[in-house]
Write a structure and sequence with these properties.
42% helix, UDP-N-acetylmuramoyl-L-alanine:D-glutamate ligase, eight-stranded mixed sheet, 269 residues
Length: 269
């Protein structure tokens, strides 16, 4: 019996210490950007990180898309090897690593699907200063649904308290705005009209104007001039699942192939 009591006390003590250590790591990073949404999370994470690096901010980023990766302050990438599948506890270890790099900012893609886990990820793991919700589309309806509005409400779990949120969502922006007001969070809806076709053509893959405009808005919020942030984005490495076009010429015929396998929700496909 005494052994059980001692073991329980030690376990609880360890949990308290781990929570304290994680909060210390979080507080050590002044700018924390949490990316959520149905489509474009990985791309926007990379774009924001590239823009911040170009603007002189030491930045660590983490994506959860086609291939989970940590993007180092110098732009190099390290693959995340998962032995037991995806788990939101992974975010704790990302912050532990990031804090050792003494960055100005961390840009982290939300890896939770379950609405409760999205709430926990934001409130307990990330505590973002800036949030991004790319869009709200019908996806993972078995977990976040059954309706598209339920999906939007689920994604709103990462809107921070007393922070800032940027979104390209149109249909459910009133819902997101209502949640943001309840949390004393400033929310801004962006339009892709400021990004030209010429600017998009300088990416070495097919990037969406909404993603670029979201990233530029966040970088502007953090004091990075538009032209510097945009150039950094155009020169950055895309996500392995980024939309790409391949052209093959064969016996007088021109064949076009598009890599669209990362788009797996009904609206995008």
């Amino acid at each position: 019996m005494n052994v059980l009591i001692v073991a329980t006390v030690l376990l609880v003590g360890y949990w308290i210490y781990e929570y304290w250590r994680h909060q210390r790591n979080v507080n050590a990073i002044p700018i924390r950007i949490h990316i959520n949404g149905t489509r474009g999370k990985s791309s926007v994470t990379r774009l924001i990180a590239a823009g911040l690096r170009a603007g002189g901010k030491r930045t660590v980023a983490k994506t959860t898309g086609t291939t989970p990766r940590v993007i180092l302050p110098d732009g190099r990438e390290a693959a995340i090897i998962r032995l037991m599948g995806a788990n939101i506890i992974e975010q704790k270890y990302i912050f532990r690593y990031a804090a050792k790099e003494h960055p100005d900012a961390v840009v982290i893609e939300c890896m939770a699907v379950n609405p409760a886990y999205q709430w926990i990820t934001e409130r307990k793991f990330v505590r973002s200063t800036v949030s991004v919700i790319t869009n709200c589309r019908p996806d993972h309806l078995d977990v976040m649904g059954p309706t598209e509005e339920n999906v939007a409400m689920s994604l709103s779990n990462t809107i921070p308290s007393n922070g800032i949120c940027y979104t390209a969502e149109d249909k459910y922006f009133p819902l997101l705005k209502k949640v943001a007001k309840q949390r004393n969070c400033k929310i801004y809806q962006i339009r892709p009209t400021d990004v030209t076709e010429e600017e998009l053509s300088k990416f070495n893959y097919i990037e969406h104007a909404e993603n670029v405009q979201l990233a530029l808005a966040v970088c502007a919020e953090l004091g990075i001039p538009r032209h510097i942030a945009l150039e950094g984005m155009q020169n950055s490495h895309p996500d392995p699942g980024a939309l790409k076009k391949y052209v093959i010429y064969d016996e007088g015929k021109t064949l076009y192939f598009y890599n669209i396998f990362a788009a797996n929700d009904p609206d995008s496909t």
